[in-house]
Structures are given as C-alpha cells and as structure tokens.
Amino acid sequence: MIDFLDATCFQAISMSATVISLPPSGIAETLDFLRRLASMMSGGRNAEMLLQAAAHIETLGRRALSAEQLFHAQQEESAANAELRQVAELAAGRLIVEVDGLKTELVAHARLAEAEHTRLAAETRELSEDAQHLAALVEDAEARLARAHAEIAGLRDVLDARSASMVAVPVHTLRLARAQFNHLAQGFERSGDLISQTICEIGGYALDQAITGPDTEETS
What we know:
Number of helices: 5
Largest sheet: none
Helix content: over 70%
Number of strands: 0
Radius of gyration: 64 Å
Distance between the termini: 186 Å
C-alpha cells in the first residue's frame, strides 16, 4: 500500500513538474525536501523513487530554465529585428520620397532643356535666314557697284573723248555746268541715288579739271 502511494506520489510530482513552472527557489526547496525525505527512509524502492523524482525535477528545471532563457533571447532578438525592420521601413520611405522628388526634378530639367533646345533651334533658323538675306543684299550691292564702275568708266571715256574734241569753251559756261553738276549731286545724295550722285560728282570733277587746266582760256 505504501509502495502504491509512493508510486502515485512520484507520478503526481513528475506530472506537476512538467506542467507547473516553479521559480528557482521553489525548485530548490522541492529538491531539498525530496532528498531529505529519501534520506529519512531506510533505502528501498520508495527512497529510490524519491531520488529519481528529484533528479527528474532537477533535469526538467534546467530544461525549463534553458527554454525560458532561449525564449527571452528570441524575444529580444525579435524585438531588435522589429526595431530594425521599422528603421528600415522608415529609411525606405524616405528614399522613396527622395527618389520621387529626384524624378520630378529630372522631368522638370528635361522639359527646360527641351524648351531651350527649341528656342535655340528657332534662333539658329532666324540667324540663317538673316545671313542669307544679308548675303543677297551684299551680292546685289556688289552687282550695282560693278555696274556703277562700268558706267563711270564709260562716262570717263566719253568725257575724255569730248575733252579731246573740244577746242575752247568759255570758263563761265564750264563753271555754270559745274554748279549744275554739284547741285544735281546734292539732290541725288539726299534721295539716296548713289550711282547718279557719283556720275554728277565725276562730271563736276572733270569740269574742275577743265577749268583749272593749263589750256583753258577764259572768254566772255
């Protein structure tokens, strides 16, 4: 009967040890009680079972302590991982905002560059058209200048021929003709007719030469 009670007590102690988590001081007291109780018995099966129960409880206590320590370590690691994840999420959020801002700025710069390129292309076309227009004006001016030179040369030949064929002309007639040439030259200058002005100036110069020449005799 005593052996049956002892076996039942051992099973109850073992079951309670696996279910109830005692504090370290409670486990130590339980172990001390079981070992003292076993020492009070004169050996036998009951003392052996009490010692086995104490050893079993001690082993379970160590396992429970290790499991609790591991649980706390995992909890701390999980908390640290959660904190790191939160920091990473915040950093990722900031990076996303920064990247979006950079994308917006890049699009704005691209639009400005495109507008500047369009403006420069338009200015280049205008400059090219102006250059072509100026080239045409220069070509026309050169052609008119060449014609003016040809006309001046022809007029000079005519004046030379006329000078060679004339015997004598009254000075006052030459002076009157020179005054007319000068008047005409001034009129053409005001109107902007460069060719006619040049012709009149050449005529006036030729008359000056005729008036001041050594062979000219003033007659009345």
